[in-house]
Amino acid sequence: MDTTSIPPKLKEEIKVEDEKGKDREKDIIAPTTSTMIHRSSSRPQLDLSGAAIQGNFEERDPAILLPNQSDDIFHLALDIGGSLIKLIYFSRHEDHLVDDKRKKTLKERLGLSNGSRRSYPILGGRLHFVKFETRKINECLDFIHSKQLHRGGIDPRGWSSEAPNNDNAVIKATGGGAYRFTDLFKERLGVSLDKEDEMDCLVAGANFLLKAIRHEAFTHMEGQKEFVQIDQNDLFPYLLVNIGSGVSMIKVDGDGSFERVSGTNVGGGTYWGLGKLLTKCKSFDELLELSQRGDNKVIDMLVGDIYGGMDYSKIGLSASTIASSFGKTISENKELEDYSPEDISLSLLRMISYNIGQIAYLNALRFGLKRIFFGGFFIRGHAYTMDTISFAVHFWSQGAAKAMFLRHEGFLGALGAFMSYEKHGLDDLMAHQLVERFPMGAPYVGGTIHGPPLAGLSEKISWMEKFVQKGTEILAPVPMAAPRTTGLGGFESPSSKGNTLRSDDAALNVGVLHLVPTLDVFPLLADSRTYEPNTIDLSDHSELEYWFTVLSEHLPDLVDKAVASEGGTDDAKRRGDAFARAFSAHLARLMEEPAAYGKLGLANLLELREECLREFQFVDAYRSIKQRENEASLAVLSDLLTELDGMNEESRLLALIEGVLAANIFDWGSRACVELYHKGTIIEIYRMSRKKMQRPWQVDDYDLFKERMLGSGDKKPRPHKRALLFVDNSGADIVLGMLPLARELLRRGTEVVLVANSLPALNDVTAMELPEIVAEAAKHCDILRKAAEAGGLLVDAMTNIQDLSKDSLSSTPLMVVENGCGSPCIDFRQVSSELAAAAKDADLIILEGMGRALHTNFNERFKCDTLKLAMVKNQRLAEKLIKGKIYDSVCRYEAAAG
Amino acid sequence: MVRSMPHLDVSGAAIHGNSEDRDPAILLPNQSDNISHLALDIGGSLIKLVYFSRQDNLVDADKTLLGVSNDSSISSCPITGGMLHFVKFESWKIDDCLQFIQSKQLLRRSDSLSEIQNNAGNVLIKATGGGAYAYADLFKDKFGVCLDKEDEMDCLVAGANFLLKAIRYEVFTHIEGQKEFVQIDPKEDLFPYLLVNIGSGVSIIKVNGDGSYERVSGTHLGGGTYCGQGMAMTGCESFDELIELSQQGDNTPIDLLVGDIYGGGDYSKIGLSASTIASSFGKIMPGKKKLKDCRPEDISLSLLRMISYNIGQIAYLNACRYGIKRIYFGGFFIRGNAYTMNTISFAIRYWSKGAAEAMFLRHEGFLGALGAFLSCEKQIPVGAPQSISNAKGGGFKKAYHLKFKRFCTKISSVMQRSRS
C-alpha cells in the first residue's frame, strides 16, 4: 500500500513487543480525515483509519487494533444452528510497508501506483473459521470475549474499555439460535444479535466461496474426492441443496437472486429422529458412527431379494439396488431388538441420502441446472453420506450430472452473515487475492471445534509438546472398518464407508483465509483459466508417498539449520522440535487424506513447510548459509566476468547459459546436493559442474534461443525490451549464474527485472537480499552499476544528485521485484502486484531452478518468449519428467504463445 | 407347436358392486370360453391373485382366508358367466395362498380346457412380480405347476391400460376426503400418463400406449418402508393394523413443522405455511423423547405422511419432467386409505400449484396380477376370431349378448344409485 497516495495521512512508527521480546517495526496509520475520504468513495469498504498490527506469524493470535476502529464495522458473524455454532471473524493484517528507494524507483519505472489500479485500498487480513458445539455455547462466548471479537479485537493498551459506543455493538447472526440466544449474548457480552435471513446468508456464503476460493467445490465418488474448478463466469445458475433438519433446494441465479424451488421433509431431522427411535442413539454423531459398521441388507429389501438374487436388468436395476428401504423388516417375525442399531442406522442413512439426491436431481433437471451443490449439517464431510448422494445423482442422471460438495460447507450461513455487513469490502474479492493456510493445529483438531485460544507462541509449543505424548495414537493410521463387499448392498455400493472412523468433518480441514489485496494474476499467462502450476500430480498415491519420504528425510537437516539460524539456543531447539512435530503431523494428515487441505500439489507441500517454519518463528533458516555462499561466489565473480568478456558474442551466450545451469546445482532442498556439500567447497563444485556441461542437454532448445538472441546470418534480431528473470538460489546460483546472464541482457539494451521471493524459502534468494548482492557485484562491473543505479538498487555517492535522475533513467535499468510468495515454487495465479505491473512490458521470461521451472510451470505456456533453465537434482523427477537422470539439464525455450 | 387356445373376451367388462367397494370383482359378460382362471403377482410383501370363475362358488369358510374386504362383491353374483375375482395374501404367508388355491380347486377343474400345458405336461400359471422367480420351485414341488413368468412392468401397464380403457368408475380423485370419479376417454386423453405403482418400493412408469412404456423413475421409500419402520416402532403386526392406528394419530408431536421453527408464523417469504412439515420426525431429535414416549398412532401417521408426501413429490417432479398431466397411483400401499390419498393428492397439488391432480384406481393393488391374467391373450388378440376353434361355437356368443343386455341395465341402475 502506498501511504503517500492517501492524503493527508499521519504516519507514525511505533514499536510493539512480541513474545520473543524482539522489537518489530510496524507502520501504523493513525486516525485522520481519511475516514471521510473513504466514505465518499462509491463502494463500501473497511475503514483504514485503524490499521492493525498483526502479531507476527501466529495464526491464532489476535489482531491488535487501534481504538479508533470505527464503531459501525465489525468483523464477527455467527451462525447458531441446532448442534453447532459457526463463527467467522476477520483479523486485519497489513504487510509492513517498505517504502524504500527501490520501491519508489520501481513505481516510477513501472508506472505503478495504487490509485491507478484500484480507487480504494482493500484491507489485507485474515478470515478465521471456528466451530463450537451449541450445547457448549459458553466456550464460544469465552472465545469471543478472550479475543474481544465483539469489540473489534484486543487493544493492547486497554483503550477500548474507554470506548463508550461498544454498548450498542451489533453482531450479525443467522440460524435458529440467533433468536434463542439473543438474551444470552446481550447479558454476557453486551452485544445485540442482528438477525439475518437464513436463506439469504446461505446463498451469499455459497456465492462468495464459489467465486473466491479456487478449489472449493469437489465431487465425491466412491471415496475419491476430486476438486472442481468452477469458472466464475459460468457459475450461475446452480442448485444449492441445504440439508438441515429438513431440506431446502434453492435455485441461485446470481448474487442475491435466488428462489427456493423445492425441498423435502425427509432430511437430517428425519435421520436423527427415526434413528433415535429405532436405535436409542443419543446423538447425531453416534448414529452416524454406528452406520459405519452397518449392513443394510438385513433391513432393506433389495431387488435381488425380490427376484431371487437376480438383477432386474430389463429396467436397469441390479440385484443390489434397494427396492424398498426397511422392506425386509416386514416379513420376518422379528422385534425391533432383533435388528442391530448399526444396520438400522446405515439403512436410514441410505434411505434419506438417496432420496435427497434423487429429488435434487429431478429439480436440477426441471430447471436445466448443470451444477448441484450439497451442504448442510447432515453432510458434515461424512464420506459415506456424500457417496450415497453422489451415487443417487449419478444413478438417476445416468452419469450426466454430478453432485458437488463444498469444503467450507458448514460455514455457508456464517459467511453469508459476515457478508451482510455493509462495509466488509470483500464484495469483489478475487480468488487470486486469497491464500488459505493451515495452522499447526489443523492436523490434530481437524479444524473442528476449538477450545480456549492459545495465547502465544510458547503456549503453542507446549500444546504441541503435550499433544505429542497423546498424539501418537491420534496420528497412528486410523483403523479402517473391515471391508465388506456385500454389506453395502444398495446401488452398486459406495465403497468409502470405512474411510475414516471420524464421522464429523475430520476428512476436510478449513484453514485460515489470508486476504492479500496486493496479489494479482500474472498477466503473461497464456491461459489463466486452465493454468495449473503443479507439474506432478500428487493424487497419484505413490508420488505422494515418495515426496512424503523426501520431505521427512530432509526434516532433521532442516531443523538443524533452522535452530542454528536462531543461534542454537534452548528456545530455538524447543521451537525446532515443535516445528518438526507440527510439520510431520501435517504430512501424516495429508498422507491419510490428501484432499484434507484442498487440492494438493507439490508446490502446496513445499509451501506448507515454509509456512510451518514461519509459524514457529524461524524467520530464515538458511540465513547464514546464504550469506556464506554469497560471499564465496562474489569473490570469484570478477574473474568470471573477465573470462566472459574475452569471448565472442556467440560463445559467451553459450557459456552464460551453461553457467546458469551449472550454478543451479546448489540447492539445499535437494538431498543429493546436500551430500555434495560435504565433499567440497562451493566453488569447487561449481567448477566441476561446469565441466560436465556437455551439450546436447536432456532438454535442449538452446539453438532456438540462440537464434532469437543472435539471429542467423546477417540478420540481427531486435533485442528484447524487458526480461523477467525468476531467480532461484543464493550463492553461486544467483551470483555466478543469473547475474552474468542479466548483465549480458543489459548490455544488449534489454531491461532486466530480477524476480525473487518475498519471504525466505530454503536457500532461495529473496527480494530483500538482492539489492545488497547486486551492489556488491556492481563493484566489479560498470554495466551492473549503471543499471542498478537506474533501477534504484543503489545510490552512487560519486554521482551528482542532479545528474542522477537524468543519467540513471536514461540507461537500461536493472530492477528487483518481489514475487509475492514464500515458497520454492511459484503459482502464477497469485503473484505480487508489482510483479504483475513489471510484466506488462516484458517480452522475455526466464524461469530458473527446479521449483519454478520444473515442479511448477514446466508445461505451462506464456504470452511472451520463455526460457526454462534448471538442473535436475532428483533422480525420480529426472526419469519422470525428462526421461533422464540426476544432474541432467533442462533448457526449454518457447517462443511467445499465439 | 399349435396350441388350442381359450379365448378371453373383455368387451363390456364392468365393475360388479357399488362404487364404495374395494377391489371389486369385474364382470366379463362376453366371456364365452373357459379361460385360464388364475394369475399371480407375487410381490415383496403381498401376493395378488386374480382368478376367473363361472359362478360364485365361494363358501363362507373360504372368506376367512381372504386378507381383505372383497366379501360383498364375491358373495352375491347375480349373473352366471364370467367374473374376475381379486384376492391378496401377505407374501410371507405364502402357505395360506397355496391353501387357498387348493381349496378353491383353481388348478384342478376337470372340465377345464383352460390350462395351457407345456411340453412336459405341466400346468402353466401366469405369474409376475419378483416372487414369480423366488417361488417358482415351491409351486413346482407342491402342485407340479410351472409359473409362466410375465414381466412385471408389462403386466402393470397392461393391467392399468385395461382398467383405464375398459372399466368405468375405476378412476377417481381424492381431495380432502372427497372422492370423485373421473371419466377417461380412451381415445382422447388416456396417453401419455404416468403410472405410479406403490408396492414395497415404488415404480414410476411413463405409459405412451398399449405395450409402449418406460420405467422412468422410482423410489425405495414405499409401502415396505412404511410397514417395516412402522411395525418396528409400534409393535403392529400388519400393514392394516398400522394404517388403522394412523387414523387416530396426530403428527405434530413427531414432525417438525415450519411453524415450530418460525415461532408459529408462516415463512411466507418462500411460501411455506406454518403447518408444512419441515422435517419428518424432526421433533424427536432435540428432546429427550424416546420411543416409549411416543404414541404409536402418531408415529404411524407421521410415517404415512412422510412416505405419501415423498412419493407424491417425486411423482410430480417426474410428471413435470415429461410434461405429463395425468398421474395415476396404484399399488397396495394405498389400500383405499383416505388419509394416504389425501396426502398424495396434497403433495401433487402443492408442488404443481394446483395444475396437476393425483388420480387413483379402485383396483390399485391388482394391476400386475390383472396384467398377468390378460397376458394369456398375447397370443390371440382380444375378441379376434380364433383360427383353430374348439368345441365352443358361435351360438354361445349370441346367448352372451343377450345376457349382456340384461346385465347392462342392471349395472346402470347400480350406477344411478351410487350417483344420487
Automatic annotation (TrEMBL), chain A:
Cofactor: Ni(2+); Mn(2+)
Gene3D superfamilies noted in UniProt: 3.30.420.40, 3.30.420.510, AF1104-like, Uncharacterised protein PF01937, DUF89, domain 3
Domain Damage-control phosphatase ARMT1-like metal-binding span(s) in chain numbering: 559-881
GO cellular component: cytosol; nucleus
Region (Disordered): 1-25
Lineage: superkingdom: Eukaryota
Alphabetical GO biological process terms: coenzyme A biosynthetic process
Catalyzed reactions per annotation: (R)-4'-phosphopantetheine sulfonate + H2O = (R)-pantetheine sulfonate + phosphate; (R)-pantothenate + ATP = (R)-4'-phosphopantothenate + ADP + H(+); (R)-4'-phosphopantothenate + H2O = (R)-pantothenate + phosphate; (R)-4'-phosphopantetheine + H2O = (R)-pantetheine + phosphate
Bias (Basic and acidic residues): 9-25
The UniProt record lists the keyword Transferase: yes
The keyword Nucleotide-binding is annotated on this UniProt entry: yes
InterPro entries tied to this protein: ARMT-1-like_metal-bd_sf, ARMT1-like_metal-bd, At2g17340_3_helix_bundle, ATPase_NBD, PanK_long, Type_II_PanK
UniProt-listed Pfam families: ARMT1-like_dom, Fumble
UniProt keywords, alphabetically: ATP-binding, Coenzyme A biosynthesis, Hydrolase, Kinase, Manganese, Metal-binding, Nickel, Nucleotide-binding, Transferase
GO MF annotation terms: ATP binding; hydrolase activity; metal ion binding; pantothenate kinase activity
Catalytic activity, EC: 2.7.1.33
Pathway this chain belongs to: Cofactor biosynthesis; coenzyme A biosynthesis; CoA from (R)-pantothenate: step 1/5
Entry similarity comment: Belongs to the type II pantothenate kinase family. In the C-terminal section; belongs to the damage-control phosphatase family. Phosphopantetheine phosphatase II subfamily.
PANTHER family xref list: 4'-PHOSPHOPANTETHEINE PHOSPHATASE, PANTOTHENATE KINASE
Function, as annotated: Catalyzes the phosphorylation of pantothenate the first step in CoA biosynthesis. May play a role in the physiological regulation of the intracellular CoA concentration. Functionally redudant with PANK1. The phosphatase activity shows preference for normal or oxidatively damaged intermediates of 4'-phosphopantetheine, which provides strong indirect evidence that the phosphatase activity pre-empts damage in the CoA pathway. Hydrolyzing excess 4'-phosphopantetheine could constitute a directed overflow mechanism to prevent its oxidation to the S-sulfonate, sulfonate, or other forms.
The protein's name in its UniProt record: Pantothenate kinase 2
Automatic annotation (TrEMBL), chain B:
Gene3D superfamilies: 3.30.420.40, 3.30.420.510
EC number: 2.7.1.33
Pathway participation: Cofactor biosynthesis; coenzyme A biosynthesis; CoA from (R)-pantothenate: step 1/5
UniProt keyword terms in alphabetical order: ATP-binding, Coenzyme A biosynthesis, Cytoplasm, Kinase, Nucleotide-binding, Transferase
Keyword Nucleotide-binding on entry: yes
Compartments in which it is found: Cytoplasm
Keyword Zinc on entry: no
Reactions catalysed: (R)-pantothenate + ATP = (R)-4'-phosphopantothenate + ADP + H(+)
GO MF annotation: an example: ATP binding
Top-level taxon of the source organism: Eukaryota
GO biological process, one term: coenzyme A biosynthetic process
Any GO CC annotation of this UniProt entry: nucleus
Listed InterPro entries: ATPase_NBD, Type_II_PanK
Family note: Belongs to the type II pantothenate kinase family.
NCBIfam families, per database record: panK_eukar (TIGR00555)
Protein name, per record: pantothenate kinase
Species, as recorded: Papaver nudicaule
